[in-house]
Each structure stands twice: as C-alpha cells, then as structure tokens.
Write a structure and sequence with these properties.
5-stranded antiparallel beta sheet, alpha+beta, OB fold (Dihydrolipoamide Acetyltransferase, E2P)
Length: 249
C-alpha cells in the first residue's frame, strides 16, 4: 500500500498584505513564515488550508474569509477562478496596477539585487477588457468539471473548446464567452466548435494523444483584419478541407 499523505493544518486569520507571481496573495503566520495563498486579494483576512510546507514558506488556499479587502470587485466573467486566463478580476484595476508594479520592483530590487538608474511607473491600459490581439484555445473530448458537478455525478465526456485549467495539462475549461478579445472572436470560436461537432470530427484526447481537432488560434488587428489558424492532429485532407470550407462560408 502507498503511504498516505498527511493533511496539513489550517492557519487562521492571516492578513494578505501583498501579491506574488501568478496572482497569489502573500501573508505571514504568527511565526513570521511567508504564506502564498490562492483565491485572495490584498487586504483579505482569511483562514488558509496549507497544501505545501517548507521551512521558510508555505502554500495554500483560503477556506474562510473573516473580512474582505476594500480592493475587491465582482468578477464579470463566468469562468473566472477556473480557467487559466485572468487572475485579477476580483481586484479593482487601480489596485491591480499598483500591485503588479510592486511585483516587478521586488523582482528587480529585492530578489535580483539590481539597482537601475531609473524605474518608470507602470502605464495603465486604456481598456480592461477585449485588449488581446491573439488567443489560443485547445480542443478536448472531456470537459473539466467543478467539484459540485463531480459530486452530482455529471459526466465529463463532452466535446469542448477552451483554456487549460491552471496546473492541469489534461483539463480543458469549456469557454462560453471570453472577455480578452473583441468579437468576432467568440462567435468564430463557437462556430468552429459547432462545425467540428456537426461533421463528426473527433476532439483531442490529451492523455492518449489521439483525435482530429487539436488547437485554434485567433488573431485580430486594430485594422479589423482577422486570422484563424486551425491545428489538426490527423492528416485527413478531405476532412480538413470540408471543415475549413464550411468556416469560410
């Protein structure tokens, strides 16, 4: 029998005072140990379920919120928190720019021990939605399920097109609407998916490395030009031509 992994403790009432890479919050426990915490915002006070513990730091996620940060806002995307696209939607944009600049400053001055002659402030973006000119999506024959769906016995066998779940190469979150790229990006992605299903094309199996449909990439320019690249895993020219002809039509 394999050795059981010991469940780590819950650390109570941790104040999140900053952010680290990948959008994780940073706090310290009573012993001064640094905690990297998922699902938080600077200013939150939370109980943290530890998932990894080292002598000088630990990692975990929030399981109880004692108070919420004044920087918090309501995320506008239905996929926030589960897809690998956006990590900061629950924080207002002014706070986002402040803490992102601080991450860079810490990397240069504190971690890198570099002292540049000049450090220019961050330049905020004019748009906080629909600002990307390129997005890539992956096909999968299985949909990532939430904890509630798994407990309810929902089947994950479903053809999907979307983003990878963070930290899981074989988990694809089916994207209904993405706020990162202007239309016709969403309409085009959904049309390609619908046509592939209609034509009976197999979606990729990320564990078995088989299936027809692999990726799509959509690029938009400020001039209104559009480029779509479809990646196929199988070299079936008849099926490829049929799908692409239908997309063009």
């Amino acid at each position: 029998m394999g050795r059981r992994r010991r469940k780590l403790e819950v650390v109570e009432k941790i104040e999140i005072t900053g952010v680290a890479d990948k959008g994780r919050g940073v706090g310290r426990d009573a012993e001064g140990r640094v905690l990297f915490v998922e699902k938080v915002a600077p200013g939150d006070v939370v109980d943290v379920q530890l998932t990894r513990r080292k002598p000088d730091y630990a990692q975990g996620y929030a399981v109880k919120y004692h108070s919420l940060s004044s920087h918090r806002v309501e995320p506008f995307c239905e996929h926030f928190g589960v897809c690998g696209g956006c990590r900061w939607q629950h924080v207002n944009y002014e706070a986002q720019t402040f803490y992102k600049e601080k991450v860079v400053r810490d990397a240069i001055y504190r971690i890198g021990k570099v002292n540049p002659d000049e450090f220019l402030p961050i330049v905020p973006c004019d748009k906080s939605t629909y600002y990307r000119n390129k997005l890539e999506y992956a096909f999968s024959h299985k949909r990532w399920l939430t904890k509630e769906e798994m407990e309810a016995g929902v089947s994950n066998v479903e053809d999907v097109l979307g983003f990878h779940r963070p930290g899981a190469f074989d988990k694809i979150v089916d994207i209904k609407h993405c706020w990162l790229q202007e239309d016709p990006s969403n309409d085009l992605r959904l049309a390609v998916k619908a046509l592939a299903i209609e034509q009976g094309l197999t979606f990729f199996d990320l564990r078995q490395n088989e299936g027809m449909m692999r990726h799509i990439m959509i690029r938009l320019t400020t001039l209104g030009e559009l480029m779509l690249i479809v990646s196929f895993f199988e070299d079936d020219q008849e099926k490829i031509s049929k799908l692409l002809d239908a997309v063009v039509e």
